[in-house]
Amino acid sequence: MSAIETWGEMVRVEHEQSDRMRGVRPTDTWTQFASQFKADPHRTDDAVVEELRSRMMHGETLLDVGAGGGRLALPLALTCGTVTAVEPSPSMCAVLRETAQEYGIANVSIVEAGWLEASVEPADVVLCSHVVYVIEDIGAFVRKMDRHARRMVLAIVFRSSPLSYVYGLWEQVHGETRHALPALPQFLPVLEELGISAEVTELAEQPRREFDSFEQARETIARQLYVSPGTEAMGRLERVLERALQDEGGVWSVEGAQRPRPCIVAWETGGR
Ligand SMILES: C[S@@+](CC[C@H](N)C(=O)[O-])C[C@H]1O[C@@H](n2cnc3c(N)ncnc32)[C@H](O)[C@@H]1O
User: Labelling 168: which of 50, 71, 120, 208 has CA 20 to 30 A away?
Assistant: First the structure.
């Protein structure tokens, strides 16, 4: 199997398992999580924003593919030319729109569509942060980003998929191995297969996923494992969490969870 086929198969199998566990796939999978993607565009302590800023030239335009609630698009809009945010989730678009309005940021336009369906003009820089893990047709997705970048593509990808910290819990609750989504180790061979020569920069490890209480951890992790309140699976999850969660002075986390390590995968397009 080629790297592109392997990637597509990993996403397909993971989605199939998710759909089997949750019953019906909701039209907007981000409704319960979108508010977590709101961030102050004027924050000065975000190393990822500063790293991205340092790679953009004054006045350049930006296309943010899968912009979410504007965690990166909005701070970058303060220092670059226009920003086009392509985002298919209505709940994420609502957070993005509200935050832009709240901070009076007017140079961001939102295209509410998936990347492969979106009709947009090219920009100097194309950014795509923590999106690729769920994209089945990764070849077409990356090629379109490449075609729409006049100067450079910046993809931010974790070394392992964002929810890998609950994969072990999945197995204990559902009695089957969780199929992993692809991440950086599978992304680089995909680029190679597409003839793209990219440079990888490791960013600082991010904090572990932490919770304010046992109940908050249980609710969040239940949603991530597709476990509903009042079910047998919830009983199993509670028993598993009693062993798996650690409480360090009121800060709760999953024991042994790795700190996620994001990387910037960058390539110049030179208007290819
Ligand atoms: C984990 S969030 C990341 C949001 C933002 N880039 C960030 O780093 O904060 C992933 C986002 O990718 C979006 N997404 C999923 N499939 C997409 C697609 N086919 N085209 C564009 N965006 C997509 C989701 O709706 C979601 O907002």
Answer: 71
| Ligand 1, pocket-test mutation among 112, 129, 131, most atoms within 8 A of CB | 131
Quick check: pTM over 0.85? yes
| pLDDT of 272 over the 70 cut | no
72 C-beta closer than 6 A to ligand 1: yes
Establish whether residue 131 lines the binding site of ligand 1, counting it when its CB lies within 6 angstroms of any ligand atom: yes
CATH topology of domain 3-163+177-208+260-268: Rossmann fold (3.40.50)
Gap from CA of 59 to ligand 1 centroid (Å):
25
> What average pLDDT score do residues 244-251 get?
92
Q: What integer best gives the mean pLDDT of the chain?
A: 94
What tokens were used for 101? 């309005």
Closest by CA to 262, choosing from 51, 37, 75, 33, is 51
Residue 54 pLDDT exceeds 60: yes
Task: Provide the residue ranges of all domains of the chain, joining segments of one domain with +.
Answer: 3-163+177-208+260-268, 209-256
